[in-house]
Amino acid sequence: MVKLQLHPRTGLRRSALVILGVVLGLVLPGGANAQTLRVGGTGAAAGMMKTLGEAFSAATPGVRLDIVPSLGSSGGIAAVRDGALDLAASSRELKPEEAAASLRAMHFATSPFGLVSSNPAPGDIKSADIAGFYASAASTWPDESPVRVILRPRSESDSTLLGATFPGMVAAIATMREHRDIPVAATDQDNFRMAERIDGSLVAASLTQVLMEKPRLRFVAIDGVAPSLEDLARGSYPYGKKFYLIRSARQNPTVDRFVEFLRSPAGERLLWQTGNLTVAHE
Questions:
Q1: What predicted TM-score, i.e. pTM, was given to this entire model?
Q2: Which of 138, 148, 146, 88 is nearest to 116 (CA)?
């Protein structure tokens, strides 16, 4: 049994295009003269991209961003490949076959990555104990209430990131998947909704999604440190989730302007405000 202590301190292509067609059918008719930059991808970056898009549109008259929700990294990448999106925010790098399809990836931000819970005082856990804490059905929070793990699909990038971040997590997650009563959240937004609804929940999350969506969830401190941009920048909190901007290799001046905006002082300020370190500050 692992117990926390309180501490003071596929059908992707088809589904992507179907969702895209529905959303664009709703938003495009009113803006005949506006140039539209179509953006989708991972739900963890949706709030960040919405904030960046609004600021970019305000600074670039005649251009607006349309955010297509709930595609995921792989769905967003597929939609860029097929020309249905101009950009995708991805929480993973391109696979070799995607890079071979005339796609380009740019790492533009990193957000602190950790564990959140609906428990009002989730306490602290040692990084070496996280795998056992995940895998044990007897794990409890400091108030003695049970821990309720929520998993993500095998193909989801957060599952891969968890396995790569903490020792023993690949085996721990595999053990959890053997239990049929363990819930699985399909999207980043489902992940938060389920975690809010389940008492004692435990899910993985990035700081940017928490700041943008403001769920009724709290971060678990790891080795005595809660996720923050300052601690991620100085290395005292070493766990981060990288975000990549995916675009076609074909020339697109509007995409170029958006990339320039991300790299500008205004773009860097917004990335910080939305819970992200820019590449220059890592």
A1: 0.87
A2: 148
